[in-house]
């Protein structure tokens, strides 16, 4: 299996044919209890969870998590308790680290992550929406709904691109996407640190022309990350891994969608100032 730019899909064990075999412990982890915490032996599951993974499983679990995040986000924004956003961010980060490092298929952890991220995104969106009620801030009205539709649009668009084979996922493309993703994250961190010493930092988030270009690049990278995520899910289905891993794959999609939503929301805000 090709390495994905999404940390949730990286370092998955592979079968001799190159596809994922989630029941085996990754190299170097057997001594630490394996990916399941028991020497690479999966925990007891129901017959339903042990049947082969299907595309419908991945679609349904991903849809459930997207819907949960949307509901949590709307409720958080509607409540006005924006402090819930900070709680959601911290809880989401902790759950994400647990899921990634344990490669957990526990649906409650995945659902908890989606709910927490929904809270965080809802609070961020509410901050922008709040500007709509301030003097001269009416241009921010409806920005949340537009960001949601745009994110879903990118998701559907990249799914069509993947299914039609318009862009094929190759090892070279995978390396390029991973390198680009690492690069923009480093730039974000440098810009953040620079902001403590220089007003506006490096200008990557100040709403200017450079900021617009940077956001477009981040969105493009997020879109290609989705392409790699689709490929990982496709290979997992072909490998016939247990159905319970649909939750793990859904978590991977959610991490990419969170990235996309934030960048699209930020880009839209630049054009509304």
Automatic annotation (TrEMBL):
It comes from the Bacteria. This is Putative YccA/Bax inhibitor family protein. InterPro entries: BaxI_1-like (IPR010539). It holds the Pfam family BaxI_1. The keyword Metal-binding does not apply. The chain crosses the membrane at residues 78-101, 108-128, 140-161, 173-198, 210-230, 242-262. Keywords: Membrane, Transmembrane, Transmembrane helix.
